[in-house]
């Protein structure tokens, strides 16, 4: 997401594309021009592994013929390509099935400028040499940790982009953003047993990016700490999900309050609007206006106004996440959560969401639980969206008396999310690194499948 940017030479394309689509038989149309420039450099075990550069422009046209719609995209901006784009889109829409809830966003729902400056663009350009040096420094810091045997790669990247939306309803606005990222993954080894750890960070401004030495050391230390991991017997015990991965427990909640899921009846929370799903005092908040936020935006991908709001307030579901189509199907108004790529109609996406923190830091949660499993890695989560039954493979550490005893691997945790959400205890260690953030989460009794 991004803040407004001055016009570019390609900007006159979109209004003319809308005009030609209407003349060709469309009743309504919207056009998107997405421009992106990116550079990524990767190293592995002190050797340069890859350099990737991208410069792209993608043009997308969505048209409606009555309640029938079609979306066509092209990477060419030539006059001939635009003509074919209009012809194909209108022809496809005429043959598409009717969607009684289709259509552009209502004019009364559209965002109106001037839009706030969310500080999402840093004009700094990183050279291949600078990115390579950063990646090498990250990897070197990780490899310097005792027990780390080799690297699976370190990557440093920079990108910037611009996105403009024009609709036949009169919406016309652009936004721009930058992104700087750093990631690394390494292997620690002892007696032929390997343990992996990795982490990545991304920010809007280079000055906010974690230093390569800091990231490298953290990755190396996490890998080394896993040496000697063992299985544990199957049991039911308290489980704490570290803040780095705790947001993965909240993603199914966002999916379950997504308007399209509720409208289709494929949500385990479809009948719970206005009902308690989290403990009293716990809220899930969404703020599209957070400065430099990875999910910040002055308007959604349908041009609809956005607002800071509680998704779950004091434990109670306060709203569904709605785009235009799902809002119409449910007899509601869009909440400004429409999300679009270059192909297909709009889906739904959160902006900057976070769970409100609690009182205890991670050590405090471990002391509160006394004994149990601290989860620091998760893989292969499985969810039954209709029932909320959930499971995931995890690794981490067994703790007793609030202190870590030994690392744990190859175990599975499982439960019903409706039940788990009702009993979660948030920690105080909330950090803002992604578009969805959470403090560490404690659950008092979770089924653990081990040896």
Automatic annotation (TrEMBL):
Pfam name, any one: PmbA_TldD_3rd
Domain Metalloprotease TldD/E central residues, every copy: 125-226
Entry-linked SUPFAM superfamilies: Putative modulator of DNA gyrase, PmbA/TldD
Domain Metalloprotease TldD/E N-terminal residue range list: 29-93
Domain Metalloprotease TldD/E C-terminal: 235-450
Record family assignment: Belongs to the peptidase U62 family.
PANTHER family reported for this sequence: METALLOPROTEASE PMBA
Protein name, per record: TldD/PmbA family protein
The organism of origin for this protein: Brevundimonas balnearis
